Fold each of these.
Amino acid sequence: MPNGHAQSYCDVVDALAAVLATAGVRGTIAATLNAADPWGFDLDDIPGAVFHAVTEGAAWLCMPGRPDIRLLPGDVVLLPTGTAHVLAGAPGASTVPFDRAAAERALATGEELHVGCGEPQTRILCASYQQDPAITLPLLALLPDPLHIPATGASTTLDTTLRLLAQEISRPAPGSAAVLDRIVDILFVQVLRAWLTAADPASQGPSWLGALTDPVAGPALAALHTRPGTDWTVASLAAATGVSRATLARRFLATVGDTPAAHLTRWRMDLAAQRLRDSDDTVGAIARSLGYTSEYAFNRAFTRDRGIAPGRYRARSRGRLTTLPEGETAG
């Protein structure tokens, strides 16, 4: 692999890792379905993203106004916004509402959720994902809906992870719930990798996620995401990326859909919101770590972005916004 391509790939990895570490996309196993024809499930009113992986047999994914998709063994599909859909043995099959309570009871005992009569032919692993609400930088919403990765396009690591998930579900042991959730988190990263590698994310329209593979915007995004406390300017970012200021400004706006300064500010505010909620760092310490030379400047930027002062945001996010006066910024 040429050095330029290797560096570009490293930039993608660095930027994606930084966002994934902060975005807090976490997965939970929802069910293991074991189905015998004829069968069908209605799945609606689902918060977050939904993931299905067919390990045996075949199924149909049906969504209103979309072409039906046949899912074969090894296929995975992600519905990033939890769009209402049907899983069935055949298009047009009779369906029943998905029983979440029954699925949870089955998982707790290491069993599967059975549907239909007779010998099961199809086995499906189902999971759900949620993104940290403090993070406004979109991630799930930027993905195709649905994101279908056929077994023929899946990596060997994705296939191995699915097998590991199936084994852990079938043989529950102490700590299985924690292990399953971590495996599901790994699956999400592998699905993102497969999409970034096989598809043309830029065809989805301007977005930071699609721009990760751009030879100009990708390295710039990596710099902003991994070093948010640096006093970045278009000139310094262009120098770090190895292009002219005009090229960077033009390419960044075209692929990301925003300017480097606006993107950096949004990223800094997301990091600040998370630290205000989850850490005991003072507002001043958070401001300095994110490149603000004064607490006042940070307070103005945060209030403009979130509509509330940092101290009040911290109190509200911890459920104790009761006595802080307007404008209070205590850490």
Amino acid sequence: MAKVLVVANQTAESDDLLAALRERAANGDAEFTVLVPATPHGVAWAANMASDKGREEAEEHRDALIERLRATGLPVEEAIVGDPDPLAAITDACNRDRYDELIVSTLPHHLSKWLHLDLQRKVAHATGLPVTSVETKAA
């Protein structure tokens, strides 16, 4: 069974991400671990990356995504709230456990800080894993 690390924050509850995970599960056995970096946004992003506001929102997004995945019967092994820096959060998770692939959910290009940081390429380089990007609207 493939171990898939799913990374999302503001897009965690999106229908597009859920559809992508259903499609991935239909293409072969997969077990999902959810990672939500505690990345603040808006004023909290500019003021303080270590803000508790980012962690609180990340926990809410994590819990909502877990509920949706379990409601649709998709297997969830673990759910993690990670470092505010998405690259650090992903590499931390990959250092703790072994994954076969990553699915990264982002806002549309004109809104996504993660895409502007070229997160997909950096993550692929840092982990050596295949990375699928799902671009979606916030739920």
Amino acid sequence: MGKMGFGPGNIDCDDVLEELYLYMDAETDEATKNQIRQHLEACAPCLRQYGLEQDVKTLISRCCGGDRAPATLHERVRVRITELTVEMGHLEFRAE
């Protein structure tokens, strides 16, 4: 069952970002998939994050010869992307 939230698609950004890898690998249920799709259509920061995740996945596929990164690399990349997202969020907040 999909998660309910207050963001676009009735799902919050934090929940979308948590589910991105599952969403990209088509491992989410239909309700969650629809919520995430609606959210991405309306939320520029999450859409940008989704694009970053897609790029990372493509790079891993090319470099590692497979669809899945080693768990340690996956975690390091996820932590770094989260750090960059927070930094970008602070910069965007200050710019307004």
Amino acid sequence: MIKILGEKSSLLNQFIAELRNVEVQNDRMRFRRNLERIGEIFAYEISKGFQSYEVEITTPLGNANATVPNQQVVLGTILRAGLPLHQGFLNYFDNAENAFISAYRKYSKSGDFEIKFEHLSAPNIQGKTLILSDPMLATGSSMLIAYEGLLKKGIPEHTHIVTVVASKEGLRYLRKHMSMSDVTVWAGEVDDELTVKSYIVPGLGDAGDLAYGEK
């Protein structure tokens, strides 16, 4: 299942517009904060599908019944660009466990590249809800490598793949290589093209550099 939140007008569209704007991008703190706020929006939307249970709460004036989520959540992201988006999720899922994946593009002299997987730090995810986020989904290969690496830590009950801007090619790649019966892909917006170096057009540029400075 693929859900595109930007198809309906909301504050999400404003935050993504600011992420794309070359003038606004000069403010790194604002760029990081917008990614964080987008993570919070995705967290809220994803939580709507969680299992829940009823609790009774004592207030200063009596008792009240409440329905609250009942889900073990593991938040995963790809370093370093994914950190602000990850923080947005963590702001809402207070008790979530966390996973971090180190992966990067290694370019050859010809301009081709391969995804290098370096390190994984993750808890056991068996039977839990995995939310794996990265601001950009270009070819989809980094996301797939991260997902397959996490599966070594167990099989989640359900996986949510989250990205702010996806390419159509990246979404096709995930459809082809992942079992979509237990995976939901969430995107803010979807762009049509990739450059010859596999950057999304119009995209927003290098999210890691814009958030933290050039490598």
